[in-house]
């Protein structure tokens, strides 16, 4: 509660102090404010030239740039700012306004240091992106200078030159990129052809050692091993047949004895004797009616039995003549032996050839890994070059599409949508800022004067102050004695002098503000050049371009 009372008492005391020393506050406020307003008339005027242009990028070209390795968007915007502030466009803009500066000097204007203007623009040029997307950019270029006409010309020429330069750079970049991709495609194709020839040479020379080949060395070795086993089996069979033929031929005679046999005459005689005895026996038994006990019959039976026994022991045929002839079996065996030997020799020769081939393959197998490694290396290089060729062809196709789009003004579209108009009002000093500064500085000076007056005033304004200062009790106080003349003078001062002072100071401040406002609204450089400077500069540039073209044509004709 006591704190709030102290704050209220402090505010009341401050108010009474202000009332007591009001003129010590008002006069510094007026003087400082008027001085600030007067000095503002002498401050140099600065004009803000602003030009806006659009940059629209087609989706096709954007994808091409991204696919070709475009920088990030932040780097892209930074590069645009650098090209505008420190690039060729700014130098060309300074060169373009040289004729206008010379014209201004001829008409009585002030000469301009273009080198200093170049450095000042590089330092103060502001590039802002009002719209910043991948497809659409709206770029505002601002410059604050002291000459409104020159600032306007330079900023407009800067944007014009940047647009022209950007178009030339895009066209030249696409052309160079297309040429680069053409060279890369041709170079890659030549490499692919060289590797294809190497691969074909390897496939012809080392067909048996290459991987994934139907005639690979491993398969041939397996086939040869199977053939060796088969030939060995056939060779054993042929050997057995040859040995069998030799054995049979060794046990067979080259000739055979031929015998002529006829019926044995002794046997014929014995058979005739037997028939005679049998006839006698029948005659004795049938005709003579002899019994078996008759001696003659018994004698005949004994003779017949003896003759039959002799006939049984007698050969039927006897050799009558012996001849010698060649043995056909021996010839057949000899022919079979010859065939078996021939087959054996053929199988053995083939087995030797297959074995020699197998040994050759074994020797070649020592080169298997180096040759396959080199072959795979060639294959990998070809695959890599095929991918590179596809990559370069794809980029070449994109660049060709981009060139087609750019030639049709459908790629990157640069449009100067808002050139800088005539600059009539400066941005510095600003009217509002000047008023705020004058009022603020005036209030600060008045407050300092008021504080100084209060701190240096040793007058006692009431009895309580006197009692506190002298440490004496206050018994009473007498009010101020004001005479009639003094009252009249105070009345005149309050009714006439103070209002007149207030009116005079207000009039001075309003006059200064009005003069300052009119000064800020008036462009002092408009009288130097009566015509439109943009048209004059464009005509001058067109004339210079025509002269340069004419000189070039003249040199070419010479």
Number of helices: 17
Rg calc: 70 Å
Helix content: over 70%
Question: Which class do the helix and strand fractions yield?
Answer: alpha+beta
SS elements, strand count:
6
Q: Mean pLDDT across all residues, rounded?
A: 76
Q: State the order of secondary-structure elements, H for helix, E for strand.
A: HHEHHHHHEEHHEHHEHHEHHHH
- What's the domain count? 3
The main pleated sheet reads as: 4 strands, antiparallel
Query: What coarse outline follows from CA principal-axis ratios?
Result: rod-shaped
| N-to-C span | 103 Å
Q: Please state roughly what percent of the residues sit in beta strands, choosing from under 5%, 5-15%, 15-25%, 25-35%, 35-45% or over 45%.
A: 5-15%
The poorly predicted ranges are 65-71, 526-531
What strand line-up does the widest sheet have? 2-3-1-6
Write the layout of secondary structure elements.
Blueprint: H1 2-20, H2 22-40, E1 47-57, H3 59-67, H4 73-86, H5 88-96, H6 98-106, H7 114-124, E2 126-132, E3 136-145, H8 148-205, H9 217-250, E4 255-263, H10 265-287, H11 295-313, E5 317-326, H12 328-365, H13 368-407, E6 412-418, H14 431-456, H15 463-470, H16 484-521, H17 533-557
Antiparallel strand pairs: 1-3, 1-6, 2-3, 4-5
Helix pairs in contact: 2-14, 2-16, 3-13, 4-5, 5-8, 8-13, 9-12, 10-11
Overview of the structural elements:
This protein has 558 residues and is an alpha+beta fold. It folds into 3 domains: 16-43 and 429-521, no CATH class; 47-189 and 392-418, no CATH class; 218-365, Orthogonal Bundle (Helix Hairpins). Helices cover 72% and strands 10% of the residues. It has 17 helices and 6 strands. The chain has helices spanning 2-20, 22-40, 59-67, 73-86, 88-96, 98-106, 114-124, 148-205, 217-250, 265-287, 295-313, 328-365, 368-407, 431-456, 463-470, 484-521, 533-557; strands spanning 47-57, 126-132, 136-145, 255-263, 317-326, 412-418. A 4-stranded antiparallel β-sheet has the order 2-3-1-6. A hairpin with a 3-residue loop joins strand 2 (126-132) and strand 3. Helix 2 (22-40) runs parallel beside helix 16. The chain is rod-shaped. The protein starts with a helix and ends with a helix. Mean pLDDT is 76; it is low at 65-71 and 526-531.
């Amino acid at each position: 509660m006591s704190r709030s009372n102290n704050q209220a008492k402090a505010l009341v005391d401050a108010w009474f102090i202000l009332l007591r020393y009001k003129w010590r506050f008002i006069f510094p406020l007026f003087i400082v404010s008027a001085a600030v307003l007067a000095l503002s008339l002498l401050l140099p005027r600065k004009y803000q030239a602003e030009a806006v242009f659009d940059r629209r990028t087609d989706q096709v070209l954007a994808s091409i740039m991204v696919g070709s390795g475009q920088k990030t968007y932040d780097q892209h915007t930074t590069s645009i700012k650098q090209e505008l502030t420190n690039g060729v466009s700014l130098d060309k803009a300074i060169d373009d306004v040289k004729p206008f500066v010379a014209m201004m000097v001829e008409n009585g204007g002030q000469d301009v240091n273009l080198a200093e203007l170049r450095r000042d623009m590089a330092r103060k040029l502001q590039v802002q992106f009002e719209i910043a997307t991948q497809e659409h950019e709206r770029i505002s270029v601002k410059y604050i200078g002291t000459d409104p006409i020159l600032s306007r010309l330079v900023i407009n020429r800067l944007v014009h030159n940047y647009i022209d330069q950007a178009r030339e750079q895009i066209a030249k970049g696409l052309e160079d990129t297309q040429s680069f991709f053409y060279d890369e495609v041709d170079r890659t194709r030549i490499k692919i052809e060289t590797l294809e020839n190497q691969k074909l040479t390897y496939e012809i020379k080392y067909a048996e050692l290459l991987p994934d080949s139907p005639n690979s060395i491993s398969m041939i070795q397996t086939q040869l091993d199977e053939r060796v086993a088969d030939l060995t089996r056939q060779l054993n069979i042929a050997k057995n047949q040859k040995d069998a033929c030799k054995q049979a031929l060794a046990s067979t005679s080259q000739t055979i004895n031929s015998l002529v046999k006829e019926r044995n005459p002794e046997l014929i005689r014995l058979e005739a004797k037997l028939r005679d005895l049998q006839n006698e026996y029948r005659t004795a038994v049938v005709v003579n009616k002899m019994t078996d006990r008759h001696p003659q019959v018994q004698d005949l039976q004994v003779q017949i039995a003896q003759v039959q026994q002799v006939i049984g022991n007698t050969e039927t045929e006897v050799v009558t003549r012996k001849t010698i002839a060649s043995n056909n079996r021996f010839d057949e065996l000899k022919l079979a032996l010859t065939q078996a030997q021939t087959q054996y020799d053929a199988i053995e020769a083939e087995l030797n050839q297959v074995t020699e081939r197998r040994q050759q393959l074994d020797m070649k197998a020592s080169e298997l890994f180096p040759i396959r490694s080199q072959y795979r290396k060639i294959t990998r290089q070809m695959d890599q070059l095929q991918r590179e060729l596809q990559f370069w062809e794809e980029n070449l196709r994109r660049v060709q599409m981009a060139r087609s789009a750019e030639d049709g003004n459908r790629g990157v579209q640069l449009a100067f949508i808002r050139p800088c108009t005539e600059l009539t009002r400066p941005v510095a000093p600003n009217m509002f800022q000047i008023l705020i500064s004058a009022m603020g500085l005036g209030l600060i000076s008045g407050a300092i004067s008021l504080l100084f007056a209060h701190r240096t005033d040793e007058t006692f304004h009431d009895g309580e102050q006197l009692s506190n200062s002298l440490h004496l009790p206050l018994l009473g106080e007498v009010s101020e004695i004001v005479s009639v003349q003094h009252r009249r003078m105070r009345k005149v001062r309050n009714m006439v002098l103070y209002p007149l002072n207030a009116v005079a100071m207000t009039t001075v401040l309003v006059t200064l503000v009005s003069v300052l406002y009119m000064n800020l609204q008036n462009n002092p450089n408009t009288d130097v050049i009566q015509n439109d400077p943009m048209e004059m500069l464009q005509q001058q540039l067109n004339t210079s371009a025509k002269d340069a073209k004419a000189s070039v044509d003249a040199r070419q004709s010479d």
